[in-house]
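Case study: Nuclear transport factor 2 family protein.
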Amino acid sequence: MSDAQAQILARLDRLESRDEIRQLISKYSLALDMRDMNAMASLFASDVKVGGGKSGRAALRDWLDETMRKQFDGTSHHVGSTIIEFVDADNAVGVVYSKNEHECGAEWVIMQMMYYDRYERIDGRWFFRRRQPLYWYASDLNKPPVGSRKMRWPGREPYEGSFHELFPSWKEFWARSGPDEALPEPAPLESFIETMRKGNEIRGNRVR
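Here is what the predicted structure looks like once written out:
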């Protein structure tokens, strides 16, 4: 096989991988909203970490089963802006915007959030390695979430949702009076997300 042929095959593989990952993202929304927790769990790597020292698809299924059963009568997750970038042929990261609606008894809660994802191809198939939710707001449809602590679920104390915390640019923007003097070079093609993240991590983000 020539170098040109190898490059074409690699580019085709990347295109197909991007499409498969986009399908993975949409399948998550459908499975979660239709409460097919087995289908939802099958989208993750078999040894996915769940928290509390637990791991595996069954543990993830059970945790989300409890969450959906206790907190929501119904949900609808609408996938928005999506960026997928490859670390190597079998690993990728992504940022996925999601606008969600939740039926919570007598209240209808809308939410704006994003996921910071890690994807891994295992035995020829792409899975979620991790989905880290970052929330901007959650509020009753008739109560605009103006002000701080925008996560406002019925019967719970409001709290912050870490929507901006993964990317240092948010705090840096408000800490200065105008634009930076030096304009950096554009981020490498497959490193836009990680360049923006600057190695920042979010730990202990409240999920429910």
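For the exam, be able to explain this: The chain has a mean pLDDT of 92.
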